[in-house]
Amino acid sequence: MDKSATLTQPVSAYDHAEGPADAPLTLVEYGDYQCPYCGAAYPIVKRLQKTLAKKLRFVFRNFPLTRAHPYALIAAAAAEAAALQGKFWEMHDLLFEQQTFLQPDIIPVWAERIGLNLEKFGNDIKQGDVENRIREDRQSGIHSGVNGTPTFFINATRYDGPPDYESLLAALESELALRSL
Amino acid sequence: MSALKPGVRAPDFSLLTTPDQKVSLSDFLGRPVILVFYPADWSPVCSDQLGLYSELKPEFSEFEAQIVGISVDGVWSHLAFSKDRKLHFPLLADFEPKGAVARQYGVYRETDGESERALFVIDSVGVIRWSYVSPVGINPGADGIFKALESMAKS
User: Fold this and answer.
1) What total number of domains does chain B contain?
2) pLDDT digits (tens, 9 = 90+) for A1-10
3) Has residue B46 been placed in a domain?
4) Would you tell me which residues 51-70 of chain A have a C-beta closer than 8 angstroms to some C-beta of chain B?
5) In chain A, what are the domains?
6) What is the Cα–Cα distance from A154 to B153, expressed in whole angstroms?
7) Chain A residues 23-42 within an 8 A CB cutoff of chain B
């Protein structure tokens, strides 16, 4: 049986991460803000974070499926622009929580809701830096074996199991057990 | 039955892509070809393998690579499926005789009557340079394809 794909770009301080940097488990998600499967994964990840607490570091990287999802790119840009004002996770969470309402006109409303400087936000969202970051994520995703959205990597190995909470938790706990041997 | 290996000449074939249009492998001589054998149209949405390759068309174009999908589904299923998923590459019907091309490539699942989920990267002179059979339930992504294309571009 082939080994599953592995991350080509290790997690670093450059990444958007929640949880301790030295947590025994790192869960990376390559996601698309307009993808319903990522929308479904959002509460599952939250639950995993609650259950595993300090044992889990969660990292989000962009993989907008721009052909299938016309608003995925602008949503990703919004989150990365929010990151430049220190509010990546606020925007990331809002985008998934309000996914059914996602469309370009609502993004400034959400930016305001999370307390961003709207002028800076408006400038940053169109800037090369934001664009480059999304493109870098896409490249690292492609080379790491991202095969759709969401694609999860548990401690740098692609997770190929079912996307439900129980299966993900089992895989994470099994990795935890392996590491404590 | 096992998939054809690198170094082997890719068997030529001619399959319908629409009710009145045939596509032959030899049509693409002069550029790399990525053959994507897959079990069936209409697998679960948005995270699916063909949608991903359609998404990555700009990256494949950098290598002038042509992607072609092949399953045992008929042309009408392909037309509807391609339209529904807005796919940007031809889907070929390995329909009659059923699975004949998949068999030529060593990727036909006799018991299921469908092809394996298999990838072949063929160079511009028609030689297989990389092949991979994925467990049928796992979407293999594109990293193997790009590794092959990159290594071909270097040599």
Assistant:
1) 1
2) 456 899 999 9
3) yes
4) 65-69
5) 20-179 (3.40.30.10)
6) 32
7) 35-37
Query: Beta partners for B69?
Result: B36, B91
- Note whether residue B71 is domain-resident: yes
Q: Which of B2, B7, B45, B46 is catalytic?
A: B46
Enclosing H/E stretch for A139: helix A128-144
**Which of A4, A15, A5, A26 has the alpha carbon at shortest distance from A137?**
A15
Looking up tokens 């670093």 gives A12
Identity of residue A44 = I
pLDDT tens for A78-97 read 999 999 999 999 999 999 99
Contact A102, A75 (CB under 8 A): yes
Here the CATH number for the domain that contains residue B65 is 3.40.30.10
What is the extent of the structural domain holding B137? 14-154
Angle at CA of residue A58, ends A54 and A60, nearest 5°: 165
| B3 within domain boundaries | no
Q: What is the ipTM of this complex?
A: 0.80
Q: Is residue B89 part of a domain?
A: yes
